[in-house]
Design goal:
Layout (H helix, E strand, L loop, with lengths): L2 E5 L10 H10 L4 E4 L8 H11 L2 E11 L6 E7 L8 H23 L6 H8 L7 H10 L9 H7 L12 E2 H10 L3 E5 L7 H9 L5 E5 L8 H11 L2 E4 L21 H16 L1
Parallel strand pairs: 1-2, 2-3, 3-5, 6-7, 7-8
Antiparallel strand pairs: 3-4, 4-6
Helix pairs in contact: 1-2, 4-5, 8-9
Length: about 280
Amino acid sequence: MIGDLHCHTRMSDGSLGIEELIAYAKRAGMDFISITDHDTMAAVDRAIVVGKRHGVHVIPGVEFSCQDHKSGYKAHVICYLPMFPRRLEGACAKMLEERIRAGNQEMKNVMRLYPITLEQVARYSSQSRAPYRQHIMHALMELGYTDKIFGELYDDLFGSGRRCRVEKEYLELHDVTALIRQAGGVVCLAHPTQFAPVDMAVELAEKGEIDAIEVDSRNNKPETMGELTDIAERYGLIRTGGSDFHGFYYDRPEPIGTCITDAKGITDLFAAAKAYRKE
C-alpha cells in the first residue's frame, strides 16, 4: 500500500485534469493519492468519484502558501482529511484573491513586452481558480517565444530578472496551522527545507503545531534528509511523501510516485484524522 500525497491538477497550477491525473496514478501503481491544489479543494469531490472508478483512494487535501511573518521565511502547509472543510474557505478565498491580483498584474506586465492576449492566457487558466505564471508561459510558448515553461525567459520575467514579477502577501503560518486544527484536519509541513532552515520544522514540532512532515520530497535539501527523519521520530510526527506533481508545469521532471508515503504513513494519517474527530 503506497500513495503519492502531494499532487496538483488544473484547478491550481498543474497541467493535468482530474480524470487524467487519477488514471495516470492508477497506471503508476498508486493505491492512494491526495489532491493538494493551492488554496482550493474544488477538485476533491470529483477526484473521489473518479478514484473509485479506477480503484484509487483519494485523500482530501489542500496546500496553503504561508509565511512566518516574524522570521520572514515562507512555508507550505498541507491540510489532510479536514472534518469541517468549510472552515478553510475564508483562508482559501483570501489567498486566491491575492493570487488573482498578482497574476492579473503579471499578465499586464508581460503584455507590455510581448504580444500575448488575456484570451490566450485564459485558454490555459480557465479551469484554475487563479492565473499562474505557468499559464502565462504556456501562452508565450504557443507564440514561439520559448520552448519550455521554465527556462531563461521565465527566469528573466519572474525569477532573478524579475521584470514582470509581482510579490504576493502570504497567509501567516501560525494562523494557518491553527485554522487547520479548527477544521479537524491533519497538519503537514510540506517540503520543509525548500524555503526555510530545518529549525522551522523543529519549532513547529516543539509547539505541537504540526502532525506530519513531508520527509520524502525532492524539494527538500538532500543533506537534511537525515535530520528530517530524526525530527519525525523525536516528535512523533507522521512521515509523508509526495512528488509535488504538476505535470509539465514544473521546473524538472517529477512523475507521480517519484516520492511516496508508505503504508505506515497512510495508516497513521487516517488514525490522526480519526482521533481529531473524537475530540
